[in-house]
Amino acid sequence: MSDETPEVPRSIGEGRQSPAAAAARGAALARAKLAEAKADAARRGRLPRTEPRRDGGARPQPRGSGDPQPFARAIRELLAARGWERQAAIGGVFGRWAEIVGPELAAHTRPVSFADGELVVATDSTAWATQVRLLAGTLVRRLNEELGDGTVARVKVHGPGTGPRPAGPLRVRGGRGPRDTYG
């Protein structure tokens, strides 16, 4: 590769070029430099990669026709192919909690986790925790209607999580701290 570029004599009126001409000249220059780099790599024995890259990513499966498919169907097929239908349905329950349990109950509760058929629900007071425990059977039945029979086996309810109280100069030693007993 040579560092010398031939000088092109310019006349006095040639100082400015149109943008299209400048772009065409730049593209031609880029093609020439690319060809030089490839030739130099070939001389050194380092040709550009010809085999496909191994990035480990999943490739989309070819469809029967070239027509686009509806988005909802494509998502359903992806979930089915990956075995994610149940997780997506459970995530849907978390997202639609207010719609499933009603606005009043949703205002004081929220789903925390779901594992092995057990839904953990957090409440904002002990009164609402008691109410949810009383409604657990109805809640399990309603969730199984949404997710499929037998998906939710039990509901575990957590009351308000205030955490441990810090010890300080105005604390009674050995005291159990405030208790949320009246809601």
Q: Nutshell version of this structure?
A:
Residues 33-57 have a biased composition (Basic and acidic residues). The chain has helices at residues 19-44, 71-82, 85-95, 97-101, 103-108, 126-134, 136-147; strands at 109-115, 118-123, 154-158.
How would you explain this protein's 3D organization?
The protein is mainly α and 183 residues long. The protein has helices spanning 19-44, 71-82, 85-95, 97-101, 103-108, 126-134, 136-147, and strands spanning 109-115, 118-123, 154-158. Strand 1 and strand 2 form a beta hairpin.
> Can you give the mean pLDDT?
76
Q: Strand arrangement, largest sheet? A: 1-2-3
Poorly predicted runs: none
H/E element string? HHHHHEEHHE
Q: What share of the residues lie within helices?
A: 40-55%
For the record, give the distance between the C-alpha atoms at the N and C termini, rounded to a whole number: 82 Å
Shape: elongated
- Beta-strand residue fraction: 5-15%
CATH architecture of the domain at 72-158: 2-Layer Sandwich
Count of alpha and pi helical runs:
7
CATH homologous superfamily title of the domain at 72-158: DnaA, N-terminal domain
Helix vs. strand class? mainly alpha
- Computed CA radius of gyration, to the nearest angstrom: 34 Å
Largest sheet: 3 strands, mixed
DSSP strand count = 3
Which quaternary structure do these chains form? Answer: single chain
Overall CATH class of the domain at 72-158 = Alpha Beta
CATH-defined fold name of the domain at 72-158 = GMP Synthetase, Chain A, domain 3
